[in-house]
Design goal:
This protein is mainly alpha-helical. It has 18 helices and 6 strands.
């Protein structure tokens, strides 16, 4: 797979996802390769349209014409949409599959919109779904049935933009994590008396100092850092370090470039000097932030064309720089200033208090609803007992009416009507008029209260 093809596939794995290179000498159909030889399936990029993105890329890579154009395209051709115009020349089966993928994605987005609207008070309103689909930038909402060049252009540009902003979002999430941790620490200390608070503050400071006592961390991408990987991970003689061999060893998927995941794997040994999941003082969330900082540092100094990939040429040029052999000492998160200011922390705590008030109101509302449900349950239980009592009285009435001197009093039609009225009574229709079998005074009477029959004439056969 060539470099431009890798750049396009980067859109599906640049957040730490393995690319799956296409084997152009693949085994013919019928000779299935062993399961253990298959590449590990790609992980999720974190984009909400991740599956659609990867499936489109996989389908495009199966077309010989499109693959040939990738071999001669440059980064700008991909970014500015010129490559997208080549979509008109791909095979019919590829276009058919892309059309199907787009229809599936549109259907999925409609389901997401419906679920969101159903959870609000607007689900009964007239909704313009075509207008709502415009908020999704990775496809053309005006054409919901076929995959066109504009769809590919939008998919590439949107994914590029989203992935480029992903690191910034990760840093922001880490900042909020650190502020929440500090907020909880302060709240916990406030809950202690003075003596306990002083003792706890001393313990926390000792843990912080213990965390700082770690071996020197080599600057990521420096000769010292790479030699350490060469020796401890690769098991090779550090005196025989060869940058070109090192690159090929750590291009794990053999695509000719080091992607972001392959780069981050190089920093594991340095991170293990600072972080141990068994130690109370070491925070694994901070370790991942440290890994991100290391990768950004290397990309800034090595990735000269800013395509989020490191080629062999870029890697070898970086080893010729002065910073490669004499880098500045790497400062870990403990050595740098806090990722947030006191003002930001106060604003964050204010947001937490507002959310706490909102949740309190919601909890009170739910408690009130629960009490109403309990009262309703009690009322229903009382009503059920009344119905049961009425049924018992009706049953007794039936027995009194059925036999007079051993003979049935009512004919089959009257008995059938009588049973129907009893069923209505069980269903809650109390107070209805029940026809009285022949021989009783009057045509109807209330079913409750029930009076015993008097002076009933005998039924003659």
């Amino acid at each position: 797979m060539n470099r431009m093809s890798c750049w396009l596939l980067l859109l599906s794995f640049s957040l730490g996802v393995l690319s799956v290179p296409i084997d152009h000498n693949a085994t013919p159909q019928g000779n299935v390769a062993p399961q253990e030889d298959k590449q590990e399936e790609s992980l999720d990029t974190g984009l909400y349209y991740d599956r659609y993105l990867r499936e489109v890329i996989e389908v495009l890579e199966t077309d010989p014409h499109f693959r040939e154009k990738l071999q001669t395209a440059n980064t700008e051709d991909i970014k500015n949409g010129r490559l997208s115009k080549e979509l008109d020349l791909v095979g019919h089966h590829v276009r058919t599959r892309l059309d199907e993928l787009k229809r599936q994605e549109v259907s999925r987005l409609r389901m997401l919109l419906k679920a969101k609207l159903d959870s609000t008070d607007t689900h009964n309103m007239q909704i313009d779904h075509a207008a709502l689909l415009k908020q999704f930038e990775h496809l053309d909402p005006h054409n919901q049935n076929t995959f066109e060049a504009k769809d590919l252009e939008l998919l590439i540009s949107t994914a590029t933009k989203d992935l480029e902003s992903y690191d910034a979002e990760r840093h922001e999430e880490f900042k909020r994590y650190e502020m929440l941790k500090e907020h909880e620490r302060r709240e916990y200390l406030k809950s202690l008396d003075q003596e306990e608070r002083e003792r706890e503050e001393k313990r926390l400071e000792e843990l912080k100092e213990k965390h700082r006592q770690h071996p020197k961390v080599n600057a990521p991408g420096s000769v010292a850092q790479l030699r350490e990987v060469w020796e401890e991970t690769d098991g090779l003689d550090p005196q025989e370090f060869n940058p070109k061999t090192f690159f090929k060893l750590h291009d794990t998927n053999g695509d000719g470039v080091l992607d972001e995941q392959e780069l981050e794997a190089l920093f594991t040994k340095e991170l293990e000097k600072v972080y141990d999941p068994q130690n109370e003082e070491d925070d694994m969330v901070e370790m991942e932030e440290e890994r991100l900082r290391m990768r950004e540092h290397v990309m800034k100094n090595v990735d000269t064309n800013h395509d989020r990939l490191v080629s062999l040429e870029e890697f070898l040029k970086s080893t010729e720089k002065k910073e490669f052999n004499n880098p500045k000492e790497w400062e870990t998160l403990d050595d740098t200033k806090p990722v947030y200011s006191e003002e930001e922390l106060q604003k964050f705590e204010e947001e937490l208090r507002e959310k706490e008030v909102e949740l309190g109101k919601r909890a009170a509302s739910l408690q009130h609803e629960q009490e109403l449900l309990k009262e309703r349950g009690k009322a229903l239980e009382a009503q059920k007992k009344e119905y049961q009592q009425a049924v018992m009285e009706m049953s007794q009435k039936q027995k009194d009416l059925q036999v007079v001197e051993g003979q049935p009093l009512a004919g089959p039609n009257e008995e059938l009507q009588f049973h129907k009225e009893m069923k209505k009574l069980e269903e809650g229709e109390r107070g209805s008029k029940v026809p009285v079998p022949q021989g009783m005074a009057g045509e109807t009477q209330n079913i409750h209260p029930v009076e015993p029959p008097q002076n009933l004439p005998l039924h003659t056969p």
